[in-house]
Design brief:
transmembrane helix; single chain; mainly alpha; about 75% helix; 19 helices; two-stranded antiparallel sheet; glutamate:sodium symporter activity; L-glutamate transmembrane transporter activity; about 450 residues; Amino acid transporter
Length: about 450
């Protein structure tokens, strides 16, 4: 009864948030009033983010230490295979939808005013791959808790001497800069290696393993007490405040309506058909029952727009409602929150082709394949934070030689689409944990 009431309260919070948001728009509230309405939602986000680091560290180390290397290797291989297949399928669904519906109309570009000017930056696929590898091996673990490395191009003044005339030119030089945001990828790699080695030491390492097992239990109890029962109210305030703060909502929706429909339809196909079919085909279990167990995490992702912030609730839903072994969830979901971005891959594929259509550029078969592969790669590099896809979109557009300034057209509606695609990312992680657990039951039973 308690879990159903909590689910009802969370869904009620979303609906009330939508209602209050549109009522608030009619009342024409001041920015300060909107800030006060959003404040409880901001507190929820702060609390959820506060638990990310201790949860990832404790859950991964405890999970890896309780499995031997061979068995954890098999679980990792199954999880990564699932991530790769579903992310590529999501990108293909997105490409199929945008080519069929063709939402891009060059008139939109001249009608919709750019809300935010996109930063002029040069991004290449090689830079993105190297940045992912660099972040996997951080040079400072303490710094990795709050910053991640990223290649940035800065203008450098160069004096060119030709004969007796000195000319000043500007060249773009690649430099490594540290951007704010937890380097989850680096923490995951370190914790997996640390956990595996702690498990291999034997009786001497038991004290360390027990410490992280107990730490994980304490964090999960804190999540249940502090976050779970507060989340419905926080989500309501988050959504209400966001709707009130959007300018020209109706005009933007009218202009970019077909694009929004394309993205949402693609995400729905992936969530209602692709993922449940894969789950049913492998496990022969009812995906609707599994989804019902995941629903609170799904709704929270819808409200917070961050798969990392939803981690505590995803763990809780999978372990308590769907009875997935914690050793599987600790690895599959923690890694999935960073690597498995189905919704983001689909969104980036749609957005890239939409921008090409806006500029009257027709893409051939090779370009479409490039979109699929680059969107998949970019989604892996996307941070588990709100609107991270807009940053990695630059990578996809640059690979196709499309104008990056047109990203600013998507800023106005990204807040809504970001919530939907994040909820699909979390759903993909959940189904992945269910599939890996089903395939690894024998392995887990032998390691007990």
């Amino acid at each position: 009864m308690g879990s159903n009431m909590l689910l009802a309260l969370t869904i009620g919070g979303v609906l009330l948030g939508l209602g209050l948001g549109f009522l608030g728009r009619l009342a024409d509230l001041t920015p300060q009033s909107i800030t006060l309405i959003s404040f409880p939602g901001e507190l929820l986000m702060r609390m959820l983010k506060m638990f990310i680091l201790p949860l990832i560290i404790s859950s991964l180390i405890a999970g890896m230490a309780q499995l031997d290397v061979r068995r954890s290797g098999r679980i990792g291989f199954r999880a990564l295979t699932y991530y790769s297949i579903t992310t590529i399928l999501a990108a293909i669904v997105g490409i199929a939808m945008v080519l069929m519906i063709h939402p891009g109309n060059p008139q939109i570009k001249s009608t919709v005013a750019a809300v935010v000017k996109a930063e002029e930056t040069k991004v290449s696929t090689i830079d993105a791959i190297l940045d992912i590898i660099r972040n996997m091996l951080p040079e400072n673990l303490v710094q990795a808790c709050f910053q991640q490395v990223q290649t940035s191009y800065v203008k450098k003044k160069v004096v060119v001497i030709s004969g007796s005339v000195n000319q000043t030119e500007f060249v773009l030089e690649p430099t490594l800069v540290y951007k704010d945001g937890t380097n989850v990828m680096g923490m995951i790699v370190f914790c997996i290696i640390f956990g595996v080695l702690a498990g291999q030491i034997g009786p001497r390492g038991k004290l360390m393993v027990d410490f992280f097992v107990v730490l994980n239990e304490i964090i999960m109890k804190l999540v249940t007490i502090v976050v779970v029962w507060y989340s419905p109210f926080g989500i309501m305030c988050l959504i209400a405040g966001k709707i009130m703060s959007i300018t020209n909502l109706a005009a933007t929706a009218q202009m970019l309506g077909l694009y929004m429909v394309t993205v949402v339809l693609g995400l729905m196909i992936h969530a209602i058909i692709t993922l449940p079919l894969i789950y049913w085909f492998i496990t022969r279990k009812n995906p609707a029952v599994f989804f019902r167990g995941m629903m609170q995490a799904w709704v929270t992702a819808l409200g917070t727009a961050s798969s990392a912030a939803t981690l505590p609730l995803t763990f809780r839903c999978l372990e308590e409602n769907n009875k997935i072994d914690p050793r599987v969830t600790r690895f599959v979901v923690a890694v999935g929150a960073t690597v498995n971005m189905d919704g983001t891959a689909l969104y980036e594929a749609v957005a890239a082709i939409f921008i090409a259509q806006l500029n009257g550029i027709s893409l051939g078969f090779v370009e479409v394949i490039t979109v699929s592969l680059t969107a998949t790669l970019a989604s892996v590099g996307a941070a588990s934070i709100p609107s991270a896809a807009l940053v990695t979109m630059l990578l996809v557009l640059t690979a196709l030689g499309l104008p990056t300034n047109d990203i600013s057209l998507l800023f106005a509606i990204d807040w809504m689409l970001d919530r939907i695609r994040t909820s699909i990312n979390v759903l993909g992680d959940g189904y992945g944990a269910g599939i890996v657990y089903h395939l690894s039951k024998t392995t887990l039973a032998n390691s007990e």
